[in-house]
Structure formats: structure tokens, C-alpha cells
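Need the bound structure for 6-O-phosphono-beta-D-tagatofuranose, inputs here:
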Amino acid sequence: MLEIVTPWSTAEVYLHGAHVTHFQKNGEPPLLFMSQVSRFLRDAPIRGGIPVIFPWFGKPVDKPLQHGIARVRNWEVKELASPADGSVTVKLRLPYCSDLPACAVEYVVTVSRTLRAELVVTNKSEKEFAFENCLHTYFTVGDIGSVSVTGLKGVKYLDQLDSLARKVEKENRIHISSEVDRVYVDTKHTVSVHDASLKRIIRVEKEGSASTVVWNPWIAKAKAMQDFGDEEYQKMICVESGNVNGNAVKLAPGKTVSLRIKLSSTGLKKT
Ligand code: TA6
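Answer from helper R.:
Posting the output first, comments after.
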């Protein structure tokens, strides 16, 4: 695990899954949520932080694992850089996987006042490589009941709790009062998490992403997950950025595609 310290923040990145498990600005609560009962096992994903989902999202019938293989493989450090501006950049590489088409997969994490992450995939094969990708980010909130999510009004979504029924977001401010598991499609919008309890607004900016997933497991699913505390649903929300379902990537031979997120936070405006 790499521990990163900058003049403004701290972060942690595990080589297992290229998994960012911690990012915290000095003087603020952690931005990323980590389950207190996460497993740290070779063949299991870490629960919390930013799981790197690649090359599929969810659990296709013909696939052995939920959410792809990248998050349960050991990545290699390709480069560490700490330029004069005080930021720290970590570049990781997914080693060759026999169960993947020939591709080069890199993940670049840049820590400063903000946290930036970029998943870069190059198709090294002779055929089109179709895949899904998603940076499945868990955010810390003070109390899920005092949270609202903006930036998705009018966006179409697939309701994972209703057999992927296609719906349209009607709310300017989405409040969470039960399990929510929605794949918003064809959206490049920045999404904000307004946390009245911690008095902060988290911004999730993205590039190279047409899908945003919003998830909170709520009570029953929280109890059903072994690596997630029964009450932890009150302290987190996932706002995930990627290309899933109908937004899956179709990468021509020799081409490269990037999925980028920039996570930042500011104090709530005094009203
Ligand atoms: O983020 C949406 C989702 O697909 C949910 O359906 C839930 O399964 C979540 O991902 C967590 O998946 P995981 O495999 O990490 O337990």
C-alpha cells in the first residue's frame, strides 16, 4: 500500500486492485468511505474507497465475478512523481491477464487539494475490444438522511431494483430514504453530493464517462453484506463514473480511451 502525503491532503493506494482506500484534505473528514469490516484478501475486493471496475460491470451470466477482474488483481507501480507544485502522482499498470484480450491498462492517481483518477485502456489486439469501466467511488457522508444529490435531473436511468426498468430522474435534489441502485445513462454531467451534516459539498467531475451510478444499500442489503457494517449505509453514498450497459466502450484496435474523475469538496455556503 502506498501512503501519500501532500501539503493539503493524505491518501492511500493499495496495489491490490489499484484501490484508493483513503483521501482526506487536512482539517476535513475523509472524502472517501471505507467499511470498518472490509476484507483485505487476495481474491476479494476491498469494500469502500474507489473500486476499479473493468472490463465488465455487474455480474453477466457468463462471468465468474461481479464487477470484473481489475479490482482483485495485483497491479504494479509504473511511476511515482512529485512535481514542484506539491502534488503526487502514482501510475499503476495491470499486469498481463490471460483472461483478457491483448490490452494495456494503466491507472493514474493524482493527489493534491483534489483527488484525480484516470483509467487508461489501449487495445493491443487485432479486433474491436468491447468493455465496461467504472470508478465505483464510495463517499463519506455524516448522515445519509441529510444528503441530497444534484446534477441528474432529466437524465434517463436504469433502475437496478426494478429489473433495469428505464426511468427518468424527476428530482433536482435526490434524497435517499431507501435502497437506491440506479445506472444513469448518456450523461456527462458533474454530480454534487450536498452533505448538510458535515457541512460540505462534494463535486464529482468526470471525462470520458457517459454513465453515472448512484447506490446506497440501505438496511437489508447492508445486513446481507459480510464486509459492510449493518449501520454503515448511514455514512456513505456511491456516486460512480464510468461507461456501463448501453454506454459500454467499443475500442478499435490500436486505440486508447481514458476514464477520468476529479473529486473535490467545499464547505457548504453559509445560508
Ligand atoms: O454500485 C452498484 C452495484 O452494482 C450494486 O448493485 C451493488 O452490487 C454494488 O455495485 C456493490 O457491488 P460489490 O460487488 O462491490 O458488492
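Comments: The chain has one domain: 2-267. Helices lie at 218-224.
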